[in-house]
Design brief:
Blueprint: E1 14-16, E2 23-25, E3 27-30, H1 38-41, H2 47-59, E4 64-66, H3 75-87, E5 95-100, H4 111-125, E6 130-136, H5 143-147, H6 152-161, E7 165-172, H7 175-183, E8 189-193, H8 204-212, E9 216-220, E10 237-238, E11 241-242, H9 245-261, H10 265-274, E12 281-285, H11 289-300, H12 305-312
Parallel strand pairs: 3-4, 3-12, 4-5, 5-6, 6-7, 7-8, 8-9, 9-12
Antiparallel strand pairs: 1-2, 10-11
Helix pairs in contact: 2-3, 3-4, 4-6, 7-8, 10-11
């Protein structure tokens, strides 16, 4: 069983993103590495390479691109804006999503700051409307502050009412906090990262909550920052944290299972998310044009059901997950 149709010429399947009315491909390009963040990813991405990558994305099969105001201090958005200008704007049917962030210097995450963040994103991207904007990393403000009158959630909802923003989502890590935001009914989409993967199942109830309420679900960082895609020893962290001994052992066993079956661990990691009908699009960071086709190849590679069943036995327990 594969995550996408076996026929390489077949169009990518599209799924309705919850109740937003947006149709998104099963794969979404993550724009964080396009801004060049060597401290996080371990490599530079020159602007010309980023623009070549974006040109390939905008002309290709994937129809959704995710970025954020704070990726590389706005450089990801700036480069996307340049690519849109060079290519004549956003292609028809293409979904561009970004995130409203706190002030990186002061930590301010007020309603006024959320509005400033969105306005700055519009300028960098060179657009006058954003189809989807997430409240980003809300763990940096209390739930009560975020939801209070005049807070960032109210500001984003006001921007939606004004027509500046099409749909409002919430994106972050801590799953119990995201569940609280989902329960408010204020959001149409949730983006979880690093918490729904081969080795971390923290987000299961969050995804259930979201789909039960009709929200769209985006699942990011299925490679855990690269450790599930890189050869042994090339990555020593998962979800921006050093590998625990428990996770290291589980990864070794998963590599062994995949090796014995003649399949790629990276393919299994990507398809774990693609196979889940609750996940509408899986976000994969892309930093080179050729990575697009490589991701599609991983998504289409045959991975037998019995391999996933065996990998599930090494998924670990709640105490071994990020939460």
């Amino acid at each position: 069983m594969t995550g996408l149709p076996d026929d390489v010429g077949a169009p990518l399947p599209r799924r309705s993103l919850g109740r937003t009315g947006l149709d998104v491909t099963a794969l979404c390009v993550g724009g964080s590495p396009l801004g060049s963040v060597p401290d996080v990813f371990g490599y530079d991405v020159p602007e010309d390479r980023a623009l070549d990558t974006l040109a390939a994305v905008l002309a290709g099969q994937v129809n959704v691109l995710d970025t954020s105001a704070n990726y590389a201090d706005g450089e990801s958005e700036r480069r996307i804006g340049r690519a849109l200008a060079l290519g004549g704007g956003l292609p028809a049917g293409f979904v561009l999503a970004t995130k409203a962030d706190r002030d990186a210097v002061t930590g301010d995450f007020s309603g006024a700051q959320a509005r400033r963040s969105v306005e700055a994103s519009l300028r960098r991207l060179g657009v006058d409307h954003l189809q989807l904007v997430h409240l980003h990393d809300p763990e940096h403000v209390t739930f009560e502050e975020a939801m209070a009158p005049g807070g960032p959630v109210e500001a984003l909802l006001d921007l939606r009412d004004e027509g500046v923003v099409g749909h409002v989502g919430v994106a972050g890590g801590p799953v119990e906090l995201l569940r609280r935001f989902v329960a408010t009914g204020a959001f149409e989409v949730v983006l979880t990262h690093s918490r729904w993967s081969l080795v971390d199942r923290s987000a299961d109830r969050l995804i259930d909550d979201a789909t039960g309420r009709g929200l769209g679900v985006l699942n990011a960082a299925v490679f855990g920052g690269g450790v599930l895609a890189a050869p042994t020893g090339q990555r020593d962290s998962y979800g921006y944290r050093p590998l625990s001994e428990s996770m290291r052992r589980r990864l070794e066993r998963m590599r062994s299972v995949c090796g014995q079956a003649g399949v790629s661990l990276a393919a299994a990691a990507l398809q774990f998310s693609l196979r889940d009908a609750r996940v509408h699009s899986t976000v994969v960071g892309i930093s080179r044009p050729e990575r697009i086709e490589q991701a599609l190849a991983l998504a289409r590679a045959p991975v037998p059901d019995e391999v996933f069943a065996e990998l599930d036995t090494y998924a670990g327990r709640p105490g071994e997950w990020l939460w």
